[in-house]
Design a protein that fits this description.
globular; four-stranded antiparallel β-sheet; 30% strand; 93 residues
Length: 93
C-alpha cells in the first residue's frame, strides 16, 4: 500500500468550499484512477490533509500527472490556497 498525502493551507472561512471540492472529486477518483484504493479528508486546526491510498508508488505518481488532478482538483482548489500544497508519498513497509 502507498499513501499520497497532500497538506493544504486553507483559511477557516474557505474550508467548507474545500470540503465540497473533496466530495465532488472523491467518487471519480475512486472509480477512474488506476490503483486508487481510498481517499480521506483529515481536518486539523492548522490545515487540511487529503490522504489517498494506492496500490503502488507508480499509481500515486501517475495520479499527480493526471488530468483529473491537474485540470480539475488543482484548478478548483487554487483560489482557496494560502500556500503551495505539501505533497508527500509514503510506502507501507
Amino acid at each position: 500500500m502507498t499513501y499520497l498525502q497532500i497538506t493544504l493551507k486553507i483559511a477557516e472561512a474557505n474550508r467548507g468550499a474545500a470540503a465540497g471540492i473533496y466530495q465532488k472529486y472523491k467518487a471519480p477518483f475512486l472509480a477512474t484512477v488506476a490503483g486508487a484504493r481510498s481517499k480521506e479528508l483529515l481536518v486539523r486546526e492548522a490545515d487540511l490533509q487529503v490522504l489517498h491510498g494506492f496500490d503502488s508508488r507508480e499509481s500515486a505518481e501517475a495520479y499527480l500527472r493526471s488530468e483529473l488532478f491537474t485540470a480539475d482538483v488543482v484548478a478548483s482548489l487554487k483560489p482557496l490556497l494560502d500556500a503551495a500544497p505539501d505533497v508527500r508519498i509514503y510506502q507501507v513497509a
